[in-house]
Amino acid sequence: MNEGFSVSSLRGAVDLSALRSTPTTSVTGTSRGTGVTDAGGSEGVAEATPTTVSGPFIVEVTSKNIEQILKNSMHLPVIFVFHSDRSENSQTLVTQLSEIAKNLRGRVQVGLISTDSERELTSMFGITGVPATVAVLQGQPIPLFQGLPAREEIDNTVSKLLEAATGYGITGVLDGQDSDVEPEPELPPLHQEGQTALHNGDLEGAHAAFSQALKENPGDSDALTSLRQVELMQRVNFINPEGSSEGAQAVLEAARDCSLREIDKHLNAADVETAYGRPDAAFGRLLDVIRDTDGEARETVRKRLIELFDVVGIHTELVKTARKALTNALF
Which residues pair with 174 in a beta bridge? Predict the structure, then answer.
């Protein structure tokens, strides 16, 4: 982005096909594709360290600060909300998107543009009615809403916007400077110890720290999630010590044509699929194995599936759907 960046110079920069409606991935049937891309692909394990961007999560946008806000779109999604004090729906949309911005804690910036006072900006974006919402990624404007959509539609669209941004490496995080949002609470000592160990590549140290945190507080869900993630990393490192996409591919190919009763191969494949961003494939695979096995083998696979639920997040829709499928498979 050059220093002369302005609204009038907005131009297409990224492919935003991820924002189009896509069907929900099923985890109730067989899903045994390879699902691994090169190390640089969006499904790889390693992620770049997010860029820290100075600024508040929610900002009033005027002709004086618009250029800086647009420059932020090079690092993270910016969502402009065009509103009017005379529109009740405008105020509702402002409230809802402001709440989302606070919950995302810097992964998006919400810019509030008053059509009453910022008529030039309103005209530049081609806004003809309020409320209206436009996202900007890398200088490219993407119309999101005209009017007030259902809250679920807002949440889904913002999620797809974040997915599209991540796919193109747009993963900056605002520092919340001048924001009215409370800063993140300091991590408990054992959590901090575990995170430091992870940063240093010390998986054993991280495992010990999170295990101790869970021992001291069995209800510590954050410690449990972190522990399961570390255990997944340890298993993947063992079955693919070089950490290469070729090694991961070999694990998946070994399980592709074998019997569902060869559970070790499928457990390894499910770990790789989860680590490479394909938990849907992992869940579908293990559910297939559970349906085809019994006794000790079935119990071993069930336990691993539950552990992967913890890795992904027990409150995600994917896990909720998979839990129902697991219940049906067992009973």
Answer: 53
Low-confidence ranges of the chain (pLDDT < 70): 1-49, 178-185
Indicate whether this model's pTM tops 0.85. no
Please provide the DSSP assignment of 157-210 as one string: HHHHHHHHHHHTT---EE--TT-SSPPPPPPPHHHHHHHHHHHTT-HHHHHHHH
Q: Which two tokens stand for residue 124?
A: 């530049």
How does 279-292 read in b/e, with b if 16+ C-beta sit within 10 Å?
Answer: bbbbbbbbbbbbeb
Between vectors from CA 288 to CA 285 and to CA 292, what angle results, nearest 5°? 140
How far is CA 260 from its chain centroid? 31
Establish how many alpha carbons lie within 13 A of residue 219's alpha carbon, considering only the half-sphere containing its beta carbon: 0
DSSP 77: -
State the alpha helices, DSSP H only, in 221-331.
221-239, 245-256, 263-275, 279-292, 295-312, 317-330
Instruction: DSSP letter for 19, please.
Output: G
Q: Residue 277's pLDDT is what?
A: 82
CB neighbour class for 168 (10 Å; exposed up to 12, middle 13-18, buried from 19): middle
Name the packing angle between helices 295-312 and 221-239 (round to 10°): 120
Whole-number pLDDT of residue 39 = 33
CB neighbour class for 136 (10 Å; exposed up to 12, middle 13-18, buried from 19)? buried
Asked if 37 and 275 touch (Cβ cutoff 8 Å), the reply is no
Closest CA to 308 of 270, 261, 263: 270
CA atoms within 13 A on the CB side of 235: 21
Contacts of 188 (CB under 8 A, 6+ apart): 213
Residue 28 token pair: 């109730």
